[in-house]
Specification:
5-stranded antiparallel β-sheet, single chain, Rossmann fold, 366 residues, OB fold (Dihydrolipoamide Acetyltransferase, E2P), 10 helices, alpha+beta
Length: 366
């Protein structure tokens, strides 16, 4: 475990009677790239603004190196922020924008010049010092904004969806660049995004949020391969979430077959959900040992084919470099380690189906 530099304890935030954050407990370690990930309205930006000191929690405390900083204004926290709109000064050059903070703090001119050059080198903008910022591309402006924040040597840099305005290709390039900058600077990054690929690409730790609550905290590998509930499984990448029954430890039944698995501790004949990632579903020649189905669609995605298989009324998504054309009859095989068993939750397929049926009934009665 690394050094904890910031800790959130029992954070609640209410706006006009609406609970935006509901009991957040979280810590951030030194030199960590931590990402707050979730859909719009889940509370991730509100949480970032509480860390930065722009708003106060309704309940709970923010601790910085063990000291409560709830009442400390943003400019007195050693925490800087880069927003989606970079807010660069259009009448200043690149170098003047980066030097803005140190000049306010009345640094020595030689120290400022050296620090600006150091930042330009870090963000791969050497030679851009005298450029007009309005002539820069979106990616270059984003780097200037990061350099302007990092020159102050904050303990934590907060980034609120800073790549949202960039096109797809540039966004992918900047994901790699931001991770490099974080590693080379040694500064802790707390990053907000709703883009799962961004989170998986850059993060040391991902905090998945929904409805003002933390759903799961873990490494990208943990979040993807071991989702704690149906929301996380459904939100992080493509997934098949199926109703199932845990026959006993290491045996689970779904799609009309009993599969060996690596999970235990759910009890016998317990109703559960299973998660199957599309890349783990193997389509093979008909075999009575495995569930069978019919391919109803196949789309070429470049690196693989994406196929949908109707299996006992369940539509299963499978990805493979080998195409099975629509109309093909196939068997579905899944390795034990690729079957993720979860307790049922409000996002479970059968629960969502019951809720939809209930809503339909209420609409008819109305």
């Amino acid at each position: 475990m690394g050094e904890r530099i910031l800790e959130l304890s029992g954070i609640y935030k209410t706006f006009e009677g609406l609970d935006v954050l509901n009991g957040i407990d979280l810590y951030i370690e030194k030199n960590e790239f931590l990402t707050l990930l979730g859909p719009s309205g889940c509370g991730k930006t509100t949480l970032l603004r509480i860390i930065g000191g722009f708003i106060k929690p309704t309940e709970g405390n923010v601790f910085y190196r063990g000291k409560c900083i709830n009442d400390l204004p943003p400019h007195k926290r050693n925490i800087n922020t880069v927003f989606q709109r970079y807010a660069l000064f259009p009448k200043m050059t690149v170098g003047e924008n980066i030097a803005f903070g140190p000049k306010l703090k009345k640094w020595d001119k030689k120290k400022i010049d050296y620090a600006v050059d150091e930042m330009l080198e870090l963000v791969s903008l050497r030679g851009f010092r005298d450029r007009d910022v309005t002539t820069l591309s979106g990616g270059q402006q984003q780097r200037v904004a990061v350099a302007r924040a990092l020159i102050n040597k904050p303990d934590i840099l907060l980034l609120d969806e800073p790549l949202g305005a960039l096109d797809l290709k540039l966004r992918k390039e900047m994901q790699i660049e931001l991770k490099r900058i974080q590693q080379e600077s040694g500064i802790t990054f707390a990053y907000v995004t709703h883009d799962q690929e961004e989170a998986l690409t850059m993060s040391d730790t991902i905090v998945v949020m929904n409805g003002g609550k933390i759903q799961q905290i873990g490494t990208p590998q943990d979040i993807y391969n071991e989702p704690k509930n149906a929301f996380v499984a459904d939100f992080i990448g493509d997934s098949n979430i199926l109703p199932a029954k845990m026959i006993r430890d290491y045996e689970v039944s779904f799609l009309g077959h009993i599969f060996p698995c690596v999970d235990a501790g759910f009890g016998e004949n317990a109703l559960v959900d299973v998660v199957l990632r599309p890349e783990d579903v193997k389509l093979e020649a008909l075999n009575a040992e495995y569930p069978c189905g019919e391919v109803i669609s196949s789309i070429f995605k470049g690196v693989h084919y994406e196929m949908r298989v109707d299996c006992h009324g369940e539509i299963i998504l499978a990805q493979s470099t080998v195409n099975c054309p629509p109309g093909s009859r196939v068997s579905l095989r899944v390795a034990p380690a690729d079957i993720q068993v979860m307790h049922k939750s409000e996002n479970s397929p059968d629960i969502k189906k019951k809720a939809a049926e209930q809503n339909e009934t209420e609409s008819t009665e109305a």
